[in-house]
Amino acid sequence: MKLQNIAAKRLAPVFRRSAPPVRLNNTSNAAGRVSSRQLSTTSSRSTDGVFRGLTDTRLPTPWIEAFRLQQEGQKMEFAEAHNHKRDLTPKKMSDSYHRVVLPLGRDPWLSDTYINSSGHIRLGTVFMDLDALSGIIVYKHTGTGVTTVTAAVDRIELAHSLTEICDLEYSGMVTYAAGGSSAEITCKVARARGEGEPSKPEDLLLTCTFTMVALDPITRKPTHIPRLICETPEEEAIFQAGAAKSLAQREERKTSLLEVEPDDEESALIHRIWLRQLEYHDPNRPLRQPANVVAMSRTTLSTAAIMQPQYRNRHQTMIFGGYHIKQTFELAFCCAASFAHARPTFVSADPCTFRNPVPVGSVLYLTATVSYTDPPVLELDDDKNTNSSTDGPPLTRVHVRVDSKVREMEHGTARVTGQFHYTFTVPKDVRVLPHTYEEYMRYIDARRRVLAGAASQPPASTKNEGVNLTE
User: Number of folded domains in the chain?
Assistant: First the structure.
């Protein structure tokens, strides 16, 4: 009997990690030996890694049923689209508000999927949760009869570092919807306080916004959703900020390197870096390329993975956008770590746009490259370390770009699914050096992004505080 009890105690935590219900039934004979054991478990998780509390009221469909309908040429959303009448009545911000508490501090087994190897919160998993949260929020705004997809993610920055494992509060609501097909959802992650205990400014971990687009389930074309009405001056200010951001993004696309050439300052910078390369390899010059200067081509990391149905969204045949974000973030982390031979610390994620969906069964290719370092390579001086401090090791900001594309299993034409840009700090003095024209354009684009984000982030500290909110 003692052996039976010990086995049951050891097995129970293992099966508690799956979604309930779980049953462990043992019977023993008179000699105390286990004569039979019956184990059964049923998982209700529709997307791997997402907190089970982030589900909406719509019933999920097992993949085997969705696959059968797909083989028969039927659309999953057809019945939903035709059995519900669309309601385009304007909605209030509060109508879409949603709040979920992630009990990491109270549930050690749940924290297993949220904690990294250094004992801190795994940000990639949090980003995946936030995409699921935005899907719930936008559905409360649009109502039934539409298919909603993640179109873009705005800049993500850490407001405060979180160095302990505690319950987290996810919250958000629709903050901008002008009556077209898109809506902006603002999400927050904060330390969860006890019932009735007021929150504090330092409780806020991060804020980010998602742009969701509503599609007609049958035609897959954009369709109108209810516009947002504001009830207070504060809500009006939030709405106008969303409108200004939308306009700024359209203007920014007009000035990208795909549309206009580098300006005079950037062209002069490219020329100076090229001259520095020549000097490194000129036998008549004493200057040689330092060991901490790495060619951009040597920083690349690539992955390829089959997109399995366990990572699908609720529309069944496409991969969940949050999973896509998580994969790019963790590859960027590995790229920065491989480049610096040190553990990176996350600083920010730049805005990104999802250009094409990723179907279940396709192959997703990700390529990460260190595109820029701050301080830049031209500030390197062998006689004086410009990035040193007596308080600790030097810190370098490392900007990583991740290119994403997808192919069908038959390896047809590849489609670009998006570009993702992440910035980390590493406790090393290390610089990246472009060589080809394409690498110079990557360098200039990343430099623009870093300069644009400098206003909202304090300059890189020269003191390593040892706080690693990383992978």
Answer: 3
